[in-house]
Prior knowledge:
Helix content is 76%, strand content 0%. The chain is mostly helical. It starts with a helix and ends with a helix.
Amino acid sequence: MATAGIKAAGGPLGALIGRYRPTGVPRLGSREDRAGAYRRMLDASTRSFAYSHQFANLRREAGRASYKLLTAQMPVMWEISSDLISALNGVRLCGSVQVIDAAEKLVTAAGNLDLNERKADPFQLQAEAVVAAQKTFLDTCREELSYNARWYQLLRKRKEKRFLQQRAAG
């Protein structure tokens, strides 16, 4: 009741109370919410890639001896795949268009891993495509969350450039 009276008075205190937002609670689409969804997507894609890589290598190296073990691990593979799709839906809910596109390409690259590939070289190319898609997704997220220096942040860009030059030289 007091809040309504202060707001009705129209003073500066009323303006402050009218803009009250609870802290510590991320709103849908807020920076914290997007960062959480992007982190979940990165975690799910890393878990999916690692498990698929292990699955394919075991199948390629052990052959028929691995069939019972791999069959028993299928429910875990389905759970990991559904977690990846769920993380993609989380990104679709709160991400920007560029991030959503990069996330969909990452899921497509992870889905293109042929776990039945008998030769290591083609599978390695597919794995490198997943790693590249994950890097693209991460860079897109960093850009969208403004973790990268903007054009008007001259001092920050100069520090980044100096750091990258030192790293390349050393």
